[in-house]
Design goal:
It is a single chain. With 342 residues, the chain is an alpha/beta fold. The chain folds into two domains: 226 residues, Alpha-Beta Complex (Spore Coat Polysaccharide Biosynthesis Protein SpsA, Chain A); 75 residues. The protein is built from eleven helices and seven strands. Strands 3-2-1-4-6-5-7 form a seven-stranded mixed beta sheet, with helices on both faces. Strand 2, helix 2 and strand 3 form a beta-alpha-beta unit. The C terminus is likely disordered. Keywords: Cell membrane, Glycosyltransferase, Lipopolysaccharide biosynthesis, Membrane, Transferase, Transmembrane, Transmembrane helix.
């Protein structure tokens, strides 16, 4: 089965056309033998989208509608759809009709060829410049920081093996970082150029605040992917650098006062070395805090890993286990013991 997860927010006028296009895709020979389901997640729409979803679900048994109590964001809507999906392959696409459902067979083929996550790439993006330019800057920044080289991390048109989604949990604005999070766990990532269409109805929900939130979430994802299991390497290293600068600063100030020619005690020099001493002491306090925070983070990681049973295992071979043997091997009785027994 293939599960299509479609998060929507105020897309009432696009839903009927979207379902018709999806139905036409499954009438083609390219997806013969695949069953399918569509999960439309209404992320707190206020334009009557839920009523349209209910109407469409009444006429299409393979359509499932989920309605969130309020607008939680795209990541939460996708997470709800992933939890409800039953397919071996899960494909996400936006509900604004800019993603072309006719690309679905190509995503399925890419997954069958060995990819665990297939990310769409809108080569010719049909969006206004104030969305395109920040998105390109963001994509290059993500690729540079994380090492996952994709042209379009923001593209909502993606395909996943179900195994990937069982190991991930999205929150905040992390839906655009799923390939990064999946790559960190050893899954294979691929990119597929897709046809992008201009919006027919409605308006874009993009706001400039999303760029700020994306940068903050990028910092979180960078820490999770690089230092999730070794936080002391980042916090402790930064703490040691601050501590070294603090020691050097204190030694320099004290040395200037003790072995200097006395000019350091003048009214003009007094303020300078006193400021340097305060900065050095502040760096020392920051060093202690970072080292302590790193130690506490390491304890949390150890505790968490002891409860994690996933281990990132991809496959198993059949295990033919031998019959259990006694832990204590009894030595054969000696001749004297045998004679006494007789």
């Amino acid at each position: 089965m293939i599960s299509l997860v479609v998060p929507i927010y105020n897309e009432r006028d696009n839903l009927r056309d979207l379902l018709q296009e999806i139905q036409r895709v499954w009438q083609s020979a390219e997806l013969a033998g695949w069953s399918w389901e569509v999960i439309i997640v209404d992320d707190g729409s206020t334009d009557g989208s839920w009523e349209v979803i209910q109407e469409l679900a009444a006429g299409e048994e393979r359509l499932c509608g989920l309605r969130l109590r309020r607008n939680f964001g795209k990541a939460a809507a996708l997470q709800a759809g992933f939890h409800a999906a039953r397919g071996a392959i899960v494909i996400t696409l936006d509900g604004d009709l800019q993603d072309d459902p006719r690309e679905i067979p190509r995503f399925v083929q890419a997954v069958q060829q060995g990819a665990d996550v297939v990310s769409g790439w809108k080569v010719q993006r049909r969006d206004p410049w104030h969305k395109v330019i920040p998105s390109r800057v963001f994509n290059r920044l993500v690729s540079w920081l994380t090492g996952v080289r994709l042209h379009d991390h923001n593209c909502g048109f993606k395909a996943y093996r179900a195994d990937v989604l069982r190991e991930l949990h999205l929150y905040g604005e992390q839906h655009r970082f799923v390939p990064v999070l999946a790559a960190e766990r050893g899954f294979r990532i691929a990119e597929l150029p897709v046809h992008h269409r201009p919006r027919r109805y409605g308006y874009s929900k993009y706001r400039w605040q999303r760029f700020i939130k994306g940068l903050l979430d990028l910092g979180t994802v960078f820490f999770l992917t690089q230092y999730e299991h070794r936080p002391q390497h980042l916090l402790g290293s930064t703490g040691l650098i601050c501590g070294t600068l603090a020691v050097v600063g204190v030694v320099a100030c004290v040395g200037t006062l003790l072995i200097g020619d006395g000019s350091a005690w003048s009214s003009t020099a007094w303020a300078g070395w006193l400021l340097a001493l305060l900065v050095s002491l502040t760096l020392g306090l920051i060093s202690v805090q970072l080292l302590t925070s790193g130690l506490l983070a390491e304890l949390i990681v150890v505790r968490t890993m002891s409860q994690d049973e996933s281990y990132g295992i991809a496959e198993r071979t059949p295990c033919k286990r031998a019959a259990p043997t006694s832990a204590v091997l009894k030595s054969p009785p000696s001749d004297e013991t045998s004679a006494a027994s007789a």
